[in-house]
Structure formats: structure tokens, C-alpha cells
Amino acid sequence: MPTDKKAPSIGAVEWCDLTVQDASNVKDFYCNVIGWESAAVSMGDYDDFNITLPDGGDTITGICHARGGNSNLPPQWLMYVRVASVADSAAICIAKGGKVIEGPREMAGCQFCVIKDPEGAVLALLSD
Which helix (H) or strand (E) holds 66? Predict the structure, then answer.
């Protein structure tokens, strides 16, 4: 995820990515359809991808393989929203009838989890 020098705003959508079985193929699909460019990000024995605006522009999203910690994520675009505390928000999610499907855990220096609301939609939460 990109870093921003200003203080993060609670409730702001900070990132969006897609996790699928074949990230290489899907990355090529979106790069061709939209005109995005990509850069490989080593995950050890495979690469995920940062997606940038054309002509070396800003990194705007990621396309990831459904492996490791991402293996249980659904194949859909996932928004990451800033909260005050991932742990507190995860507990409230469960109390209100939702589920935590990944985490909480650390990712890129932040606390992170993926929740599922009572209707089945998913959202990622992050905090310092």
C-alpha cells in the first residue's frame, strides 16, 4: 500500500486491490482493458503486482494471487478503510453479526483484517 505523509483520516478508503487465483492473467486483462501498467512485487516464490497509471504514474491498486494469507479472500475488488483500531472494529463486527475472515494481523506496518458484513460483503480494515 502506498504511504502518505499526511495523517490518515478515520473512515477514508486508503487502498483497493484484487485477489484472484491467476493474478498474472488478470493483471494483463486489466492492463489491456484500462491501459494500466504493472510492476512485479516479489512474494518469495511468486510475484504479485502493483498497478500504476500509464507512463510511470502513481501506484493506484494491487492485483494479488490467492495464496498464503490471501488464500481465503473472495475474487473481488477489496477496499481498505482506515479505522481507529482494527482489534476494536473486528470485535464490534462480530458483535453486530459480521465475521472476521482474515486477521487481525500486521501488513505493511499497519494492523489489518478483512471482515464480512451480515449480508456477505467484504471490506478490509486497517489502523496504525
Answer: none
